[in-house]
């Protein structure tokens, strides 16, 4: 199944657009791994060592695929409508948008360099319950994360 991730990576490299990866593809990999784990446990010994090496290779191949997809999206590739990672891939655009606006001083920043944000939904952060419309400040990393999730909106600077 490591070759499956390599094959998907090759397909990503061949096109300008992101390829759609459906849940059936991911489920077939899981199914294969589940059956293989059962077989390896039965065999024991050297089979377990080989399987661990195989899993490390598979992890590397999967990481390569993820990095390729993120890089393509960051460079402007269109997100496929039917892909298992659609919402994650779309979040990359939000992160890029947020950081870009932060770098050109479009957001209101506190003296301790926190971002002033407005809550779009109810959530809990730092032992505080945020309600829709609440305004407060967050560090950059947290603000980007909550913005990508659609929980907050940064307050625009008048500059």
Structure commentary:
- This protein has 2 domains: 2-83, no CATH class; 87-154, no CATH class.
- It contains 5 helices and 5 strands; from the N terminus they run H-H-H-H-E-E-E-E-H-E.
- It starts with a helix and ends in a 5-residue tail after the last strand.
- By secondary structure, the protein is mainly alpha-helical.
- Helix 2 runs antiparallel to helix 3 and helix 4 (86-103) packs across helix 5.
- It has a 3-stranded antiparallel beta sheet. Strands 2-3 form a two-stranded antiparallel sheet.
- It is elongated and about 65 Å long.
- It has helices spanning 2-14, 23-43, 46-74, 86-103, 140-148; strands spanning 115-119, 123-125, 128-130, 135-138, 152-154.
- The mean pLDDT is 91.
Binned, the helix content reads 55-70%
Distance between the termini: 53 Å
User: Could you say how many structural domains there are in total?
Assistant: 2
Q: Structural class per helix/strand content?
A: mainly alpha
Annotation field: number of helices: 5
Tell me the series of helices and strands, N- to C-terminal.
Answer: HHHHEEEEHE
Quaternary structure classification: single chain
Please tally the β strands and state the result.
Answer: 5
Low-confidence stretches: none
- Strand residues, percent: 5-15%
Strand order of the largest sheet: 4-1-5
Largest sheet: 3 strands, antiparallel
Q: Report the C-alpha radius of gyration, rounded.
A: 21 Å
